[in-house]
């Protein structure tokens, strides 16, 4: 049912946004977008402001990822928009339905040199699904609805609109669209049947499930398919937690053994990119299940590649009535490897060494994190350990930058996560390098009473660069940071609290204080710079 609205451009936009389920706005104040603020203020629409526009977009992306609905960032013209482009690009790689609304210099004097006059569209078009300038107030509801429909249609992603000054400040009298009606994409039934037969008949199948399984609300269908066919499951991105760690088909530590020994690898809802050896699993056949035809890999030839609604495809796999091989011995083999790796990890997470090894930080975190805690990774070397040692127990509790690998997501993601889950633990895992990108936005969290815990792994270096560069050249440059810098004092100065920990025995008590503080609290852990994450740099 549509509604007729008579109001200025900000009111017209906000009415449409509400119809599409948007419930908050993230922004950094700018005069070009005042009507959007006016509409929000006069209708008690929650508005959260930040100290850098990238944090506004990252906060909107966190909401989009966690709640599987549109997230909204409002940026002023020119540098406001360009400061948000890294956030837009991350959302593009992560398939996050984020809408960025930008201000724009007035069209009636375009080319005369107005303040922050810039045509944004050529910059944002390559990293959005839809980008448009809206020149009249009456056209704003249509444009907002069209953009959000594009954002929500698989394969999901960010969209952008900007409004010239005279358009957003003018009034209109138009009908507001009723909201989204996104039709599911139906996969080719023959392709689905081929995939189901390959998986069921394999001797050593493996499922790798990624973020789109969560985004497509297909977690239950994944579990049903895995259980019906008896297939071990590994996860990445927001697929983590789709099966709880105690599930007999959930695996995390034996991935190398599994991918090396599998005869069929089923990759669901994640690209065949550098995180998965670009889809090269030796002699194994690859089944690539994606949410839209555009996501089929072009650099490999899968044995089957169903494209469409992931719930429907996975349900069809679960309902497969053909022959099924017994995978019991294969699962037992992987469980043996998994248990051995867990035993090794347990020793590392209990290490009493000083300087502190990063593994010990995660050993202590595992003791204090609740099952529904939202954990956010923002960093390189230090956060790589998080992927190894932390095992999310529930879906929708893990946020990382995704395949684009953009640092600086931390405080924005923390804001979006805290807004989404006011009563849960929110924990940001941050390298000391990443801290330089967004730590000032602790002030935004403090001011708006959004408590989070920040754990900084402080080794005084760019770990993923220093060690590989030394291995390649025998020296390193531009890879050192100030050793033992007091990031906790930065947070305290911004109105939060924190402390520095240099001894392993002090980690547990510090983390308990952090989660009990009720304000943004940073635990600055001095870690061993010689302890690098054990993997080679993949620049291909």
UniProtKB/TrEMBL annotation:
Family annotation (CDD domains): TPP_BZL_OCoD_HPCL (cd02004), TPP_PYR_POX_like (cd07035)
GO molecular function: acetolactate synthase activity; flavin adenine dinucleotide binding; magnesium ion binding; thiamine pyrophosphate binding
KW Lyase (keyword) present: no
Cofactor(s) named in the record: thiamine diphosphate
Annotated ranges, domain Thiamine pyrophosphate enzyme N-terminal TPP-binding: 9-121
UniProt xrefs under Pfam families: TPP_enzyme_C, TPP_enzyme_M, TPP_enzyme_N
SUPFAM superfamilies hit by this protein: DHS-like NAD/FAD-binding domain, Thiamin diphosphate-binding fold (THDP-binding)
UniProt xrefs under InterPro entries: DHS-like_NAD/FAD-binding_dom, THDP-binding, Thiamin_PyroP_enz_cen_dom, Thiamin_PyroP_enz_TPP-bd_dom, TPP_enz, TPP_enzyme_TPP-bd
Domain Thiamine pyrophosphate enzyme central, first and last residues per copy: 192-317
A cellular component annotation (GO) from this entry: acetolactate synthase complex
Keyword field: Thiamine pyrophosphate
Residue intervals of the Thiamine pyrophosphate enzyme TPP-binding domain: 378-525
GO BP annotations listed: isoleucine biosynthetic process; L-valine biosynthetic process
Family under the similarity heading: Belongs to the TPP enzyme family.
PANTHER family attached to this UniProt entry: 2-HYDROXYACYL-COA LYASE 2 (PTHR18968:SF166), THIAMINE PYROPHOSPHATE ENZYMES (PTHR18968)
Protein name: Acetolactate synthase
